[in-house]
């Protein structure tokens, strides 16, 4: 299992479009994935679950991935966060 703390740095936080990008990205991997914020842990491959976190700009979320392609999934998600979900110019 890999665990990473990720800070949300895009302007709008984990809103619908950013959440959809995250879930779509994770759906390409076979590993299990969860996100945790403010004591709540959700399935990171579920749009509704991730939206329930209501994680805004500056929030830190904990990504946990477990499975055969966990390293690639963790790296891809970290890159998506670093790119600000391709939203901010």
Automatic annotation (TrEMBL):
Subcellular localization: Cytoplasm
Domain HPr: 1-88
GO cellular component terms attached to this protein's record: cytoplasm
Chief place where the protein resides: cytoplasm
GO biological process terms on file: phosphoenolpyruvate-dependent sugar phosphotransferase system
Superkingdom of origin organism: Bacteria
Classification via PROSITE patterns: PTS_HPR_DOM (PS51350), PTS_HPR_HIS (PS00369), PTS_HPR_SER (PS00589)
Keywords (A to Z) from UniProt: Cytoplasm, Phosphotransferase system
Keyword Ligase attributed: no
Pfam family, one: PTS-HPr
Keyword Thylakoid: no
Protein family membership: Belongs to the HPr family.
Name of the protein described by the UniProt record: HPr family phosphocarrier protein
Organism: Thermomonas aquatica
């Amino acid at each position: 299992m890999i665990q990473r703390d990720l800070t949300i740095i895009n302007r709008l936080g984990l809103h619908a479009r950013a959440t959809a990008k995250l879930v779509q990205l994770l759906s390409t991997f076979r590993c299990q994935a969860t996100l945790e914020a403010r004591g709540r842990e959700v399935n990171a491959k579920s749009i509704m679950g991730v939206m329930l976190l209501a994680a805004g700009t500056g929030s830190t979320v904990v990504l946990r991935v477990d499975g055969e392609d966990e390293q690639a999934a963790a790296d891809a998600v970290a890159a998506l966060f670093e790119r600000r979900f391709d939203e901010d110019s």
